[in-house]
Amino acid sequence: MAQPGSTPRTELKRIAHKASHSQQELYRVLDSNLVAHVGIIFDGYPLVIPMAYGRVGDTLYLHGSSGSRLMRALSHNPAVCISITKLNALKVARSTFNSGMNYDAAVIFGEAKLVPDDKKAWALDAISDAILPGRMDEVRPSSKKEAAATLIIQVELNETSVKISNGAVEDEPEDLGTGVWAGLIPIRTVVGEPIPADDETAQLELPQSVKRFISDYPDKRLRSS
Predict the structure, then answer these.
(1) How many domains does the chain have?
(2) Which pTM does this prediction carry?
(3) CA–CA distance from 56 to each of 34, 116, 155, 214 (Å)?
(4) Domain holding 51: CATH number?
């Protein structure tokens, strides 16, 4: 696996000090989020679709319907650009020019490959375990019909970029002392109280996978590799 930011497409040219070349930082960004925005060229035009994903080692797995436009397009043009971002704060300066955001972001360039049928069940489990660890042990296995209606693609993490913005508000000297408020507005994603699907589940104890998700979020997916 190449170091993040080590290719011409992934090297940060502007605000380069925010680039991270750490493989562990890349893993942290990927493993602490849930949604990837996958960009392709479809019928000559850009198309970006949000998708659930899971990382195993240096491979990202994404799944979708076998009838989706993205999956059909990838069979003809496998080139993809994947973006994953976690917004942490708004930076409110004394001018709009110096205002901004604090965030963790990763961009992945690569070629999508279809996961073969004999590996599809394993890949589905890997994605599910990345989203809600342990859930696969609590539910029935996917049926052959459900598996046939699903396509899974994999993208190797060979060309990536990581950008971390966590700075304080920086105002121009002439803007200080003008009586204008400036500061950070933290932004956090929180887990709410689970809502039972029906009367049956309202009588049941929360499963362990849901309990762990609630107690561990947002660091529920952080792994060492």
Answers:
(1) 1
(2) 0.88
(3) 14, 16, 11, 22
(4) 2.30.110.10
